[in-house]
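ESCALATION

Customer reports they have been waiting on this structure for their group meeting. Please prioritize. Original submission:
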Amino acid sequence: FDERQDAVAKRYVYRLTVGPVRRPLWRRQAWHVKGPLDPAAMQAAAGLLVGVHDFSAFRSVNCQAATTVRELFSVEVAPGEPWTLTLYGNAFLHHMARIVAGTLVDIGRGRRTLAQLDRALTHGERTAAGQTAPAHGLMLDEVIYGPPGARQGLHHKSLLGYVQAAQSATQSAAQSAAAEVAACGSANLAR
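Update from on-call: job pushed to the front of the queue and completed.
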């Protein structure tokens, strides 16, 4: 088993707090962004990121990856307290999740446009992408592994059937647990 080579998908969650005042309880787990963000613009930008792209504009200068082509299965922007940016894909470059988060925030602030994001994706221009967001807002939420010992690596990371089966198993387990909790709650109410 190799934790890097056997992984076929990863999900990162980036947390933000938004507003004029920094929340002390979130200071080590979320990036504080002053001023308002436009969730509609951020969601439109997130839609452009989904799919197979050359993410060379979304990596650090120290990245040593053999290829910069990656697939993002979904990118979600969820306003709230805290805001969450969820990135789910087959593989990530060095600092890619943080640069995507910084780009989405820059678009939400009105500092970058969708045309600049498109240029970053199509031409690999790092200057067209946004800033690198601070590390303290980023969390690796889930890693999905392929069959043990198969060593898919980057050449076999598009095993969508396996990823989707793992996702539905996780969702089924969560639904079963929720149904069990609901059944216990209704049984207690009947007493």
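Sent to customer with the following note: The first strand starts at residue 7 and ends at 18.
Escalation resolved.
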